[in-house]
Predict the structure.
Amino acid sequence: MIQKMEVNDLEHIVELEQQCFTSPWSKDDFLYELNENPFGYYVVLKEQDQITAYLGLWMDEERAQITTIGVDPKHRSKGYAKALMEHMLDVCSKRGVQMYSLEVRVSNTPAIALYERYGFKKVGIRKAYYQDNHEDAYLMIKESEEN
Ligand SMILES: CC(C)(COP(=O)(O)OP(=O)(O)OC[C@H]1O[C@@H](n2cnc3c(N)ncnc32)[C@H](O)[C@@H]1OP(=O)(O)O)[C@@H](O)C(=O)NCCC(=O)NCCS
């Protein structure tokens, strides 16, 4: 079941974030996204009431940027990221989004494969984009199917 992320979810989300990312967001980062960012859209995927995955984006009228997607390491390769991507694309297309973008570490083969599966293409490189190890990011873009 996919639901809007709530403040009560954040304790668990921050734990998952630490397992998923080398530069994890803090609880305050998520609080800002949930409570103050008018463009923020954050959801969790629950299995038997346990959060197993989450996704976030910034969405305005025509553009959406995926800010995060993470799946509990114990629950990978079960299709949860695909379920979240499909939910995200459905919500965005109903709201008229025309263009999707994201940044991803050049070494992140699973995530790149996930995004390519949904039609994202590498369109540029952001040099030394990540502060922790100065790794480059691919900028990936997808245009809506109606274009
Ligand atoms: C990337 C991530 C979200 C994938 O989650 P997941 O639930 O395991 O993915 P799914 O089971 O839904 O698989 C979706 C697709 O992703 C790709 N994929 C997932 N794991 C992969 C792997 N280990 N190697 C290659 N491709 C992989 C495949 O294209 C797969 O589709 P397929 O099964 O039809 O081949 C997960 O590995 C994760 O949380 N990683 C750490 C956080 C992260 O890097 N997020 C992305 C930040 S940009």
